[in-house]
Amino acid sequence: MKQLKVVFQNPNYVKLFLATFTSQMGNVIGMTAFMFYLLHRFSSQPSYATLAELMYSLPTLVVFFIVGVVVDRMNRQKIAANCDWISALLSIGLLLAVWIDWIPLIFVFLFVRSAISKFFLPAESSLIQGILDKETYTVAAGLNQIMGSLFLLFGGALGAMAYWSFGIMGAILIDALSFVASALLIQACSIQQQTLLPNGPHTWKDLKLKLIATDFKDGFAYILRNKLLLLLVMGFFIFGIVNGGLSVIPIFILKYKLAPTDYEQYSVWIGIIVGVALLAGSLVASVLSSKMKLYQLIATGLLISGVFLAAAGLMTNLYLFFVLAFMTALALPAVNIGLGGWLPRIVAPQMMGRVQGWIGPLMMLSHSLTLGLIGISFPAVVSIEALFLIIGGCFVLAALYYFAVLPRFVEDEPLTPSQTQSAENAPSV
Fold this sequence. Notes:
Blueprint: H1 2-8, H2 11-41, H3 47-57, H4 60-73, H5 76-99, H6 103-117, H7 120-131, H8 137-187, H9 193-196, H10 209-225, H11 227-246, H12 249-258, H13 263-288, H14 294-312, H15 318-346, H16 352-377, H17 384-405
GO molecular function: transmembrane transporter activity
Transmembrane segments: 16-39, 51-71, 91-116, 137-157, 228-254, 266-287, 294-312, 318-343, 355-380, 386-405
Membrane topology: Multi-pass membrane protein
């Protein structure tokens, strides 16, 4: 509680937290409504819903080489705010594309807006690392997880209400206004120059191809030299697989197996159930983070979630599926809080952008590959039960590997700039 009070006494953190909240709230509403729109418009073609998800993930593979370089070289506050402003304008473009009913243009706007948004999280994470102390990183990670849980708890219901009440146009407008609010909050922050520009001032003219290539390579080398950091980054890769699968398979199992005629209403219920579980799990994991080693928190969360997720896909009873979905989601926050609280402890501030710049594309690569495989194979080749078993099995295997490997590393040893070279001698996996 003391650390939580310290975090919320920081006015810059409060503004960044609220900025992230408003941005994500509108985005969740917009995405949920858009999923309903596509499933209504193309009910016999579930691949369109999968394609929409790909438009959120694939852009990472287009901009990943420059994201970390831009965040580490340019003003991080301006980057985060401009991401919101541009996303708001692109949401208006999306609104017009829906109005004229041109599906290819809709996907273009989704793709470009997603590409712009990929700069937001590395910039925001780097700002938070600079304005908080090491002891409060796990608290901030727990708050982010709680916020995400609230979105899942209320986002699906709000998205459905917005779609039913105002249609897809109204939902997209809410999405655009949320980006505007987020941008204003970020601009209201007063942050030290060292946090904004840890590598000194640069201009866009400085970002030449040679510098971009060098910085991108340095970020990759930095991760490889620190074996602990490499293992944590691979954890995000696995999380991308699960995020990709869970973005579509719950609604698929409802529509094509458990509740074909009432899947929309039950999708709201599954959102509420998962949201409650994540919220409860976030509170539990936040408490456990001070009592358990972070590697134990991560691996235990992976193991429990994987087992229950695999079992959920085998259910033929809707209510038993809800129970297992609850148990799956209850353990997930332990993974997120463990990874999110551990990462800023071992990454030098000067390198955070480039590290985050690699995490994003790795997650989206696994996310996109998962969605692509689902789009190609489901339902012709792979059953919905097999999808649950495959994704749950990935979690279980990752948990066993982490239990075996992560105890070799010391959690609380930060990797400062002077230690970067010594990281080459870290224990090999």
